[in-house]
Amino acid sequence: MIELPKTSRRKFLRNIGYISVGFPLLSSCFAEQDQKIAARINYDGNLPGSMRNASKVNAWLQVLENGRVLVFSGKVELGQGIRMAICQVAAEELDLELDQVEVHLAETGVTPDEGYTAGSGSVPNSAMSVRYAAATARQKLLELASDKLKTSIENLILYGGKVKSKNGNQSLNFAEILEGAQIDLEVTRPVPVKINTEYRYVGKSIHRKDIPKMVRGEAIYIQDLRFPGMVHARVLRPASYQAKLLSIDQSDLTSQVSGVLKTHINGSFVGVIAEREYQAIQAENFLRRKAKWSSGTEFPEEKNLFDHIKSIADPARNVREEGIVSSEFSSKNTIKAKYTKPYIMHGSIGPACGIAKYDGETLHIWSHSQGIYPMRRAISGMLKMEESKIHVISVPGAGCFGHSTADDAAADAAILALEYPGKHIRVQWSRNDEHTWEPYGTAMIMEMEASLDDQGKITAWKSDVWTDSHSLRPDSDPATLLDTRYLENPVQLKGRGYLGGGHRNADPYYDFPNMQVNAYFFEGPLRVSSLRSLGAYSNIFAIESFMDELAEKGDKDPIEFRIAHLTDERAIATLKKLKDITQSQSVKEGEGIGYAFSRYKNNTAYCSIAAKVKVDPETGKVNIQKMWAVGDVGQIINLDGIKNQFEGGMIQAASWTLKEQVRFSGEKISSEDWYDYPIFRFPEIPEVEVEMIDRPNENAEGGGEVSMPPTGAAIANAVYRASGKRVNDLPITSEKILG
Amino acid sequence: MPKYNLHINGSQKSVETEADTPLLYVLRDYLELNGPKFGCGLSQCGACMVLIDGVAETSCVRPVGSIRDSKIITLEGLADNNEKLHPVQEAFVQEQAAQCGYCLNGMVIASVSLLRKNPNPNDSEIREGLELNLCRCSAHSRILKAVKSAAKNL
Fold this sequence. Notes:
heterodimer; A: Aldehyde Oxidoreductase, domain 4; Aldehyde Oxidoreductase, domain 4; 3 domains; disordered N terminus; B: alpha+beta; Ubiquitin-like (UB roll); 5 helices
């Protein structure tokens, strides 16, 4: 018999989040439904990485006093629907109704530390941890009920939040079984999980519960949080990356702008707090006019960016070597191509927001950060304040698509909260702040070289990739937070973060006997960090454009050419299905269909994309008429949710491919708003169709980034077929097509 | 400070603020409405849209002093008195036409405005009607389906 620590009523109540998007309490209308016992199978594979530091059942779920189940996840909701996916998995294993499960997302001291919500990792890590914890809990609940009811487990049914004897005479809900305790039990293999043929929720298209709240304008986002006495703040960002504050004349501020409560200047950090939000904006505008900044270093000229990158890059670092490529490249059938991608933006529709309150002892922070525990480490370092004195609560913001500005806004609020204790300080970034200070997805150069034999098979392949970091996310280095670099005694970044993202998917998934991949790392002129799919989008753009060039050189059909170089049946299945669903398409003059494939990170989910485009021969304007995706994410948790992710990924990547490029000049970022940095608008949106291949016996992989990498190349290949012009230099604009 | 009496979602609301305060800040900060969202402050993205006398307009640059007797409906005011959702709201739920949902306010408001003028728009008329509204998650194809299905149910 395990020790079950008693849990107080207060703890139950405290665990309900502030604006928890949980489910309403419903009466137990589920009780009399089908109560058959689903078959189970012992899972003896690896446990998710997230369980390393949270190995016990009660780290992932607790039973509430009313018998409902509260599930904990250290991941955050980014619009990807993770809350629903986790709810489905928990309800499945515990045979609950969906509305008997509440999900509490990331909060320090409450949920497990699952690092960042990134890399399509929330399903394989968080949802699977919940699956194994819930399956373990189910077994324990049955054992305890068996003792209490003095009957064998075989004589019990667990369903709808109750354990009943089969003859129906006795019944206990989960809370009655646990008597206020929680299941303080290690999750150990083998775990008896429900067999997938008996699933009620997993794999189904289940509507998200937050969308009805969104359409009614209920409080969902951090921007909607309102606390009694909350005040509004703005931070005046420096005139450029390297600019330092020389002077600021505040003498007329309070006579010119009403409601100003405090200004706080520390080094080149300028913050202002006001009673009302619009007063804070006016105060920031006033201070901007009165601030004098030193000038900084100029950016390289845009047209010289890629030469500049090569000139500052480190020597090659070999990241993969199979066989010998050099001897193959001496043969005649060797071709080369160079591809480039500019800096691009996350471009969240909702600029960052952070709220903080210092109560004299603890600093409470509300943030839409993707990683509240790592952000706490960075803020702790920046403020020289113990981590245990900082409490961070995740609240959804607008979709962020990687590490953007949420953490910086939280840092702004934290600094100001310490200066103005006792009140909730709400910092809202402007559109200009967001566009000009976000950490972009880095510019990259991809050079490809390959040789073909007489049968049109690739015998050798080399990828050379020039890349800056793809992750300077907040963590133990406080300079990952923007403010740290501008406070008095500024601290600059110690390193370049995670570099591996630059060569993500730079080694083709195809079976080539000789392959070499080299990375040339550089520290570029613009601030960068993680953008959805990291280097995979650029590398697959290059690889899959080049595969089409090689297919044409070998006079092969592009799909058959890819299949001829693959042995993984799941990869081949996506291409074959894509061919099936697109082969009836007629292609008129000026139109073309292009294809591309990738397996994200070469070890997770598969995606093949087709794009049909029309290119106007006079104007060079590209119109994407339709895109198709065939995906395989292994076991599907929520079919509609994964389709939504695939559709969004395709359209966003299509916008990157045709339109997007961060502009800069002198020492300024000149892409300051949506006119200077245009993205897709409705008239440009292609029709999209997504087919998923469900593989319930395979691992469940995330799908947030999977459809983006092949989208760029599919469009480039289609543009080539439609216009005869191959554009290797993103974005694919009409000038480049006509040029 | 001047005082403004505004018609918002069928009620009279009184607000004291500077005449140049954009309507968005009056709605969010003074009246504590959540529907209209701050997205750009430049009338470029549509996240802050409200209906002004039945027509979708951005509220982020429009000074409160210019509103006068116009009737304003926000996302919160679309459902009927029995809390039954407007057909456009209902269609967005049915089509799961959102990811993060931050742009959804503007999408719903612009669609209501469009369908009021043109109850049976074709595909390109819907696209034109929503041209100002940006969605970065790129739920566009679902939003288009939602507007078409709402048009059938109006």
